[in-house]
Amino acid sequence: MSDDDRELRVSKIRNGTVIDHITGGQALNVLAILGINGSSGEEVSVGMNVPSDRMKRKDIVKVEGRELSQNEVDVLSLIAPAATINIVRDYEVVEKHRVETPSEVVGVLSCPNHNCITTAQEPVESRFEVLDEGVRCVYCDTIIRQNIAEHIEVE
Ligand code: CTP
Ligand code: ZN
Fold this sequence. Notes:
Blueprint: H1 3-7, E1 16-23, H2 27-33, E2 44-51, E3 57-64, H3 70-79, E4 84-89, E5 92-98, E6 104-106, E7 127-131, E8 134-137, E9 143-144
Antiparallel strand pairs: 1-3, 1-4, 2-3, 4-5, 6-7, 7-8, 8-9
Bound molecules: cytidine-5'-triphosphate and zinc ion (ZN).
The site of cytidine-5'-triphosphate (CTP) has 12 residues, from strand 1, strand 3, strand 4 and strand 5.
């Protein structure tokens, strides 16, 4: 068995996206960010806490037939700042980039403060400033430190 065979945990995909180098333990949150719970029949492979050279343990998510939006990548960066996004076409990695943590995420997270102008029936898009340890609503200063994925706006 070659080294490659030994290392491969989940099979290669044909067309889609491999999100690699996810912070260990965050794969299920990555799936939440992508709105994947299996009920729509999406073809997804997940590896959790697998050994990695670059990180002690990493998670990996492979989604067949799907490329990610910039908004999705922005939120991913909040829980998996070292992640790499690999676009696969016809079994080859045709694009690879590291996620970048944006200074703000707009229209992606909903503010947990029910009195916030962004949660009233006003046409105000949510806007969060990204901090080292969480995100802050620029309208009401509410800080979300944990479980950021639970605050993703449902479309
Ligand atoms: N991959 C996959 N299906 C493919 C091609 C690649 O699932 N058809 C996966 C690989 O298993 C790997 C990731 O996509 O987890 C990136 O592939 P590649 O760039 O070939 O691997 P590395 O060079 O090891 O990536 P890196 O340098 O980013 O660690
Ligand atoms: Zn707010």
